[in-house]
Each structure stands twice: as C-alpha cells, then as structure tokens.
Amino acid sequence: MDTIDLRSDTVSWPTPKMREAMANAPVGDDVYGEDPTVNQLEAEAAEMLGKEAGLLVTSGTQGNITAVLTHCNTRGSEMIVGKQAHIFRYEAGSASVLGGVHPNTLQVNPDGTLDLDAIREAIRPGGNPHFPRTRLICLENTQGTVGGIPITAEYTAQVGEIAKQNGLKLHVDGARIFNAAAALGVPAKELVAPADSVSFCLSKGLCAPVGSILVGSKEFIDEARRTRKMLGGAMRQAGILAAAGLIAIREMTQRLHEDHTNACALAEGLAKIPYIRLDPARVRTNMILFDFAPDTPIAPDVLATRLKNEHNILIRAYAGETKNIRLVTHYWITPERVEQVVNAMRTLLS
Ligand code: TLP
Q1: What is the pLDDT of residues 16-26, one digit of tens each?
Q2: I want to staple 327 with a disulfide (CB 3.0 to 4.6 A). Which of 6, 149, 208, 215 is the partner?
Q3: What's the domain range around 71?
Q4: Any ligand 1 atom below 6 A from CB of 217
Q5: With a 6 A CB cut-off, is 173 part of the ligand 1 pocket?
Q6: What CATH code is carried by the domain that includes residue 263?
C-alpha cells in the first residue's frame, strides 16, 4: 500500500518528467556563471515575478537569510517580522545568529497580515543611539501558520508604501507565492510588485527535489550572490537541479488549483466527522488546520500513530499550537487519496 503523506508539500517527490530533464540537463560551473540551465531558470523566475534578476539558492531558509543579510548589512539592524512567520519561528534564529539582526516581532492576524498601525509603531525613530536601526519589513505569502492564507496585492502595496515612506526594504517570504496567485486569481508578479526581494520554493507544491529562488533588482541580486557564497550556497553543476526547477515554474505553477480543490474536499469530509473542529471556509490554498474537541476519545499523537500503522497515512501533530493538526495537499495527493484519508479518520474517530 502506498504511503499517503500529508505532513507537508515539502514531501512531494519530483515527477518522472523532472527526473528525465535532470538526467539530460545541459550544465556548467555556476560559480563561473556558466551553467546554462541555472541561468535560464534564474531569468525565467525573475521575469515571472516581475523583477530584474534571480538567484538559485539551496532552500527557502537560505533564500530568506540571504535576503535578510543582504538588506541588513550592518549588525544592530532590525527587521519587522511576524511572530508566527517562518523567518522568525522556524529558521534557527539565523538573522540574529549570522547577521546580528534584531527581530521586532508583531502578532500575525488570522488573515495572515500584520496590522499596518503596528508596523508603523514598530519603526524606530532615527538618530537615537538607544535603538536598533529598522531596515526591513518581512511578510509571508501564503502565511503558513494561519493555514496557508493568501495575502492580497492591495495589502502588500500598503506595506510597501509604509516601507517606502520610511526608507525601509520589503522582503516577501513567498515560499508558496504561486499558491497565493492561484487562489487569488492574480499573477504572482502583481502580488509582489512592491517588494524589494522575494524568495519562493521550487521544492514544495512545485515538486522539484531541491531549491528556491530569490529575486530582486540586479544590484540586489549581485550583492545577494556574494551573501550566498558566504553561506556556502554557491553550487557548481546546479543545472541538474535547475532542470527540475524549470518544469516547476513552467508547468507545476499551472496546476496548483488542483491541490486547493483537493484540500477543500478533504476539509469538507473531515469537518463532518465527530470531534474534529474545522472550518472549511478557512481553507484557501493547500493547507488545512484543525483541532479536536476536548472530549475526543483519542489523543492527537495516538491518532497520528494509528493512522500511520493501520492506514499508511502520515500527518503531523503540532504540540502547543492553537490548531494542532496541519494537513497539506500536493501533487501526489489525488482525490482518491483524499477519500481514503476521510474514511480512515472516520473509522478511528467513530
Ligand atoms: N516550511 C516547512 C517547515 O519548515 C515548517 C513546512 O513544512 O511548511 N518559508 C515558509 C513559509 C515555509 O513554510 C518554509 C518551509 C520555508 C520558508 C523554508 O523552506 P526550506 O524548508 O526549503 O528551508
């Protein structure tokens, strides 16, 4: 029996077409700028996001830290970032550890935004030696911890305006920006138009095995290339990876609505099962967050173990968070598998 893995979209394997493209990719030494497949991917990705240049990095985390270090190039800089954002919560404190960058964290609203007034208030007045120097605002689109909620172009434009008025840079962690684009029916480049930099992942819903892309102005990417080198992320015949990345951006971005449809069907099926507390209306992209009623006869971690052992279904139970189960749909989660998951949950909870 095949495993049904709903722990994340990061678990998605490369497609057979990607594996074939990887085997046949034209390559060169990318540190010399000579890998034609990497160059092609970086150019196409930049174009899709409406920016001048792109940079292939090893992971979403490396894309974010490369951006943060490039924008905040003096120790004692400060970035305004969501308290529930991946950059703050799940990147091992890299901005502080590697860059001496001080995070000024704001509560993320249930719709994935940061309060505009809270952003304004968080910006430090200049010229006072008591304060760190505010340099950067970071947004996340889709916002993961609130359930993959897409952030609109209008909201990002308002944050961009605040950044501009205060001489700050805006970085968007767009790990799943193409999910946001599919959900909102707006081209990704419009969603990130006000951003100075954007990173997005090839290796999540887009199915590539490795890699993310950071985009921005040519000047920013030239500098980011140096930062990436410093972080050990300059690769050699990386065209092998970029070949999968080209399929990811050209083809896989076009089918993400299927993952969203499957996530909705899964949410609707699960919401009908006793003890599951889930609002299907909050499922906007490929993520489902839910928890259990207090009188549920089975603990979440026991449920996860039984799903694995008895039904070959993998889920992740998050301890200590409001919604402690997250399910993520992706290319390998078909409508038939959605049905299998609903049936298995119903069996275990009845
Ligand atoms: N997120 C992973 C975990 O680390 C939580 C997941 O399973 O969702 N930005 C966002 C918004 C992300 O969700 C992630 C990965 C990253 C950046 C980092 O990407 P990688 O894992 O490639 O470093």
Answers
A1: 999 999 999 99
A2: 6
A3: 14-253
A4: no
A5: yes
A6: 3.90.1150.10
